[in-house]
């Protein structure tokens, strides 16, 4: 399918097709992209074919073997994300000049912060929307490392992640703290024990440890456990705890719904706990962005 022709110019039509391609790639199939795009699978297929014809290359394989990006498709996706980010940056700078709130705000948030009682991010987003109805807010739930990478490469404007080991090149502002305790499920042998859970017994059962960076306090507490499983986020930790086969640390606000149902219990909460600081993160030396600054100013006073 490769063509010798070159792309002479990039039109609004091309940008729309690149945005569609990005959604298809993130969704993993044409059918999965239907709901995200609000169009039929046949329309998705037709527009993908239009983009491939425009570029003179096949971007993805589709058929009985499933959906997969070609090598060219991965390169086009990367280049397209750079282009779309540059277009959005241009729009943000023009709006900054006009002092108008319009455009996109891309936010990366670690999983399971929605149960945080402070709701600082929720209130800031509400305040932002009340200022203008020409704002598109894009939230992606991800791991701290992926959010930091998104800030560095410009895919994200702002992130909310644990403040463990700050990276140079990023600005971190304290948002709030959360308390984490060691939990087991109602199916675990320790659930009905009130006494006798010393460090030796706790270290003899299987436990789950996060695969993301932790504070020194959290690392020391996990060293006391027999960690035989890992999880990339707190939802994964909860899944393993609920099997009844593992114990693990969870933020109290996140575990509260299972505790209320009698499905989880904190083990030795008076001594087995750690506190984590959550931060709002932006890239140092970032370009002026009225949407981002308005969002940041809508947050409570940060420490």
TrEMBL record:
Pfam families: HTH_1, LysR_substrate. This is LuxR family transcriptional regulator. Residues 13-70 form the HTH lysR-type domain. Belongs to the LysR transcriptional regulatory family. GO terms for molecular function: DNA-binding transcription factor activity; transcription cis-regulatory region binding. It comes from Oceanimonas doudoroffii. The keyword Transcription regulation applies. Keywords: DNA-binding, Transcription, Transcription regulation. InterPro entries: LysR_HTH_N, LysR_subst-bd, WH-like_DNA-bd_sf, WH_DNA-bd_sf.
């Amino acid at each position: 399918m490769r063509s010798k022709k070159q792309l002479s110019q990039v039109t609004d039509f091309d940008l729309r097709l690149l945005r569609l391609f990005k959604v298809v790639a993130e969704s993993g199939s044409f059918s999965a992209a239907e709901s995200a795009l609000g169009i039929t699978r046949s329309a998705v297929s037709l527009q993908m074919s239009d983009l491939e014809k425009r570029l003179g290359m096949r971007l993805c394989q589709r058929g009985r073997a499933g959906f997969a990006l070609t090598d060219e498709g991965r390169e086009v996706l990367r280049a397209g994300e750079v282009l779309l980010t540059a277009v959005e940056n241009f729009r943000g700078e023009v709006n900054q000049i006009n002092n108008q709130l319009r455009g996109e705000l891309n936010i990366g948030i670690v999983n399971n912060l929605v149960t945080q009682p402070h709701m600082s991010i929720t209130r800031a987003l509400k305040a932002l929307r009340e200022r203008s109805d020409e704002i598109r807010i894009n939230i992606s739930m991800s791991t701290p490392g992926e959010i930091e990478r998104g800030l560095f490469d410009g895919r994200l404007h702002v992130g909310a992640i644990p403040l463990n080991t700050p990276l140079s090149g990023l600005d971190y502002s304290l948002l709030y703290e959360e308390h984490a305790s060691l939990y087991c499920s109602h199916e675990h042998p320790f659930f009905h024990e009130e006494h006798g859970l010393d460090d030796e017994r706790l270290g003899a059962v299987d436990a789950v440890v996060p695969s993301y960076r932790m504070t020194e306090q959290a690392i020391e507490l996990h060293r006391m456990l027999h960690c035989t499983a890992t999880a990339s986020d707190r939802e994964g930790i909860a899944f393993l705890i609920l099997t009844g086969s593992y114990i693990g640390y969870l933020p109290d606000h996140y575990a509260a719904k299972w505790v209320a149902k009698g499905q989880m219990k904190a083990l030795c909460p008076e001594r087995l706990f750690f506190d984590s600081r959550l931060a709002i993160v932006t890239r140092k030396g970032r370009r002026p962005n009225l949407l981002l600054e308005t969002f940041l100013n809508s947050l409570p006073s940060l420490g």
